[in-house]
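Box 3.1 — From sequence to structure: FMN-binding domain-containing protein
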Amino acid sequence: MLATVSMLGAAGCAGASADGDAATTEAPSGDPAAAEQPAGAGPDGQVYQDGEYSETGSYQSPAGPEEIGVTLTLETDVVTAVEVEPMPDNPTTTVYQERFAGGISEAIVGRRLDELSVDKVAGSSLTSGGFNDAADKIRSEARFQSP
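Predicted structure (token representation):
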């Protein structure tokens, strides 16, 4: 399965204005190679920093609260790899989390992080809630931030 993986990423750029409109930031006059970019955006308008991000998602099953570990690798805002670590608390959850882990890659690799929202993967619908929770945390963690 999946071992614990730490997040890799670089420091961010400027953030969006409070009204949600993207502000722009000018490069220092001493750096002619840098161009004007929307605040909160990285190179070429990227929303998320490239790297590998790991989070734990939570969801409710009939047997009680459950968790699932999720690691996403991002490149230019696109998911290039996914690993799921089943973390079941009961035998039924084990079956569904393992099925989910076996089918999630086909469902999301190659898609933009902002487009991810899975409903049911390999017959597992509740596990999707934990995955979506982890993906939301990864979006927050990976987003380019204001300095």
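Summary of the box: The chain has one domain: 24-142.
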